[in-house]
Specification:
Blueprint (H helix, E strand, L loop, with lengths): L5 E4 L14 E4 L2 E7 L13 H19 L2 E13 L5 H11 L6 E6 L9 E9 L2
Parallel strand pairs: 4-5
Antiparallel strand pairs: 1-2, 2-3, 3-6, 4-6
Helix pairs in contact: 1-2
Amino acid sequence: MTSVDRYVVVPSGAPKPLGPYSPAIRSGRFVFASGTIGNEPATGKLVPGGVEAETRQALTNLVAILEAGGASLAGVVKTTVFLLDIATFQAMNRVYAEFFPVDPPARSTIQVGALPGGAAVEIEAVAAVSG
């Protein structure tokens, strides 16, 4: 068996995981970011304001995670967005578009029955490493 080029990404500017998983894994030229919710890094609590505020914070957390792994939003090739209520899609999408204004990545959006910590949205991503 050969060893795999793989290491755990531990960002300083994002909330700690809520369970036994890594915030992201860098393998080769890609960073695979776990789903992140709208938790404020300092408190670990969900930001108030509903799906728009949570989407903004989740994507801000995602930026910190990707940067710790040597990637950025510009390198994101695929996201998956999990919504507690698909009726909030347009509100989430408005904020999402602020973070990906040009050539957005491929994306799937799925309604789910529940999310960790009572979140309204969770976002995961795969990004190519910069440079």
